[in-house]
Amino acid sequence: MARKKIALIGAGNIGGTLAHLAAQKELGDIVLFDVVEGVPQGKALDLSQCGPVEGFDAKITGTNDYKDIAGADVIIVTAGVARKPGMSRDDLLGINLKVMKAVGEGIAANAPDAFVICITNPLDAMVWALREFSGLPHNKVVGMAGVLDSARFSTFLAWEFGVSIRDVNTFVLGGHGDTMVPVVEYSTVNGIPVPDLVKMGLSTQERIDAIVQRTRSGGGEIVGLLKTGSAFYAPAASGIAMAEAYLNDQKRILPCAAYVSGEYGVEDLYVGVPVLIGANGVEKVIEIELDADAKAGLQVSVDAVKELLEACKGIDGSL
Ligand code: TXD
């Protein structure tokens, strides 16, 4: 059976890390695409030379021509500009919307059957715009945010309780921004809900609230430290987990920015919800029971995403 094909649109910090992770996991052959000449080609050559050392077989190529993504099974989009200190994710809207238009048209013309994972910020708006511009089915276009936000939440909880990250499972809903909703009640350590661990005296509500807030500002914390860009290792690992769920039909339940049409009382919008990802892409939106606080938090997130979409429509009349 021929190897799968993974196209990475954007060969920057996340794109290069995606390529390395996909190669190490032998998910398939990899095409790095970028508008900057030399960068995708240079990174592809460098990564190919990891093969003999790390023992992976993967054909890794770089290109500036969309024709080379033809037939891709999975496309992961990081094209655009990243944040610098003092910039919000929403500040990237105008620039990255134009990029999504070019990327959407490139995908529509060359790889319309791919499963597309959008990473570019502001994520909740960019994944919606990418779906509009590409015209792909809603279940084949999804945004990566919740897997990263949940990973941040899990890391901080594992440190708090002094347990293995393997035993921590968390739920983060809503948008990829200050309005995200880490759902403490559904977050567990080896099946024990976090509120029960607080009752058992293993932490306090104040400390858990501080962890929720640190998760919300997890991206900004790293931008402030790096100063030259934003996080890219965990975002890449998160995008690869979603790609693997599709390529290997894993039927994973993952928090993603997915299209909802009625679920959670939301119509015709991309928002962070738990979904089941398998060989047919987003196969199901999982509707969990939310308490009043989580419901209110999700509504704030939905309203914020709707505002971003209105801004997109104001910029590009074709949306
Ligand atoms: O959780 C999440 N979704 C976020 C997403 C987590 C971290 C970073 N987030 C966003 O991903 C970030 O705000 C950016 O919008 C993207 C990519 O972040 P990255 O750190 O990879 O940015 P880089 O290193 O600047 O790489 C972007 C590449 C760069 O090589 C540009 O030349 C290229 O995108 N680029 C393009 N490629 C193709 N087509 C066009 N038009 C284009 N414009 C720029």
From TrEMBL:
Species, as recorded: Novosphingobium flavum
Role according to the record: Catalyzes the reversible oxidation of malate to oxaloacetate.
Any single biological process term in GO: lactate metabolic process
EC number: 1.1.1.37
Similarity annotation: Belongs to the LDH/MDH superfamily. MDH type 3 family.
Keyword Ribonucleoprotein among UniProt keywords: no
Keyword annotations of the record: NAD, Oxidoreductase, Tricarboxylic acid cycle
Annotated catalysed reactions: (S)-malate + NAD(+) = oxaloacetate + NADH + H(+)
Active site feature: H176
Protein name: Malate dehydrogenase
Molecular function, one GO term: L-malate dehydrogenase (NAD+) activity
Sequence ranges assigned to domain Lactate/malate dehydrogenase N-terminal in this UniProt record: 5-143
Keyword Oxidoreductase in annotation: yes
NCBIfam families for this protein: MalateDH_bact, PRK06223.1
Domain Lactate/malate dehydrogenase C-terminal: 148-310
Binding site for substrate: R83, R89, N121, R152
Residues binding NAD(+), per UniProt: G10, A11, G12, N13, I14, G15, D34, N96, I119, T120, N121
InterPro entries given in the database record: L-lactate/malate_DH, Lactate/malate_DH_C, Lactate/malate_DH_N, Lactate_DH/Glyco_Ohase_4_C, Malate_DH_type3, NAD(P)-bd_dom_sf
